[in-house]
Amino acid sequence: MRKYVPKDNVQGKSYYTDRFWVAPRVPRTEVEAEGHFAQVLTTLAKLAKEAYVELGQMVIHIDASQNFEVMKTLKEACGYTQCSEQSAVDYLAKDGEFELFYQLLNITEAKRVRVICRIKQNEAIESIEPLYKSANFAEREIFDMFGIKVNNHPFLKRILMPDDWEGHPLLKTYPMIGDEFASWYEVDKIFGKEYRDVIGPENRDQARIERYDTKRFSRVGYEVPFDADISAGETKTDIEYSETVLVDYTKNSGKQLDERR
Amino acid sequence: MAQHKVNYASSAGLPIVLTSADKLVNWGRSNSLWPLTYGLACCAIEMMASGASRYDFDRMGTIFRASPRQADVMILAGTLSKKHSEFARRLYDQMTEPKWVISMGSCANTGGMFNTYATVQGVDRIIPVDIYLPGCAPRPETLQYALMMLQKKIRRESANMNKNTKQNLRLV
To answer: What is the model's pTM?
Structure first.
């Protein structure tokens, strides 16, 4: 039997790790001296801090303060006319930084470039919306999901979550099932905070069945008055879950693993 | 058992129907259940299939309406996000009484597999539900069955909705 490891905060750390698993890495190669990417690098000159090729795409690391300049050069001098994707990655726990990336496409050369920069938690980034119209929604999404402010954006407003939402859901610190605000959002908004007691907390247990619940359920053809007791003297037994049935088999508990022993 | 003497010859051969007001009203209500076209996610595809010619909801008197003012039933077909919950409730409020709600599919019933921050964990948190329809997504036959169960439920009810105490919890 595998050793029991507490399963709370499973998002924070995995409770099962394969000792022999090696994280797959995309092979990195140097930028070839002759060719399109080398030309791009010479055009960028000192703007590019580091560059390599991954899966036929060039990855360029830049300084976050120079992002507009870099994108302008790439668009106007190197022919990268499309910004197909733009987002951020939360590395706050590891490095205290966000990584922002821009995925660019050159249609005439059929080449792709990824521009990567890093910003600190409370830093803002310059908008590239004047260059690429697609950046408008992408930067709003970055703001919505990570809370990264974008300077000179024409309309920096939440795009996915409601305007009155609190928190930025794609941050690693944001719980998957939502915080206090998120769990009461619809109740607070529709009925008001005083209705929290009437409606009750969210049921996150998908398997919960309440046989004798006559407040919310009535069987068609067997209707009973509201909140009537239909248990007929049967005592309520709580459903046991995997966490609760994990029995302590150490010497102190005195329990045996197998009763047939 | 009351004995009625019906002279078919004198009343132009018309048969006479004896009924109660409840029966008559509920007969009308249950056989013209007009649902609101309210597809939220993939369950809506099954709902559309139910309405189309193969499964043919029209033969049960179920005709989808595009306005909540003309609808009797709200079929919540799919995942209800928290952002949208306000509008779902508003549509429900806009429906005229008497009104019923079918929660179609796992997502509408309990939040389904979307155990996340952005999904309402069961539409019964904001709207009183009459029929919970399990499945992911429920097949058109299942939706038909749910509708027939709702008809059955309506026929057992009193025509005066205020008298229906043997009912689900009605929020507000």
So the answer is: 0.77
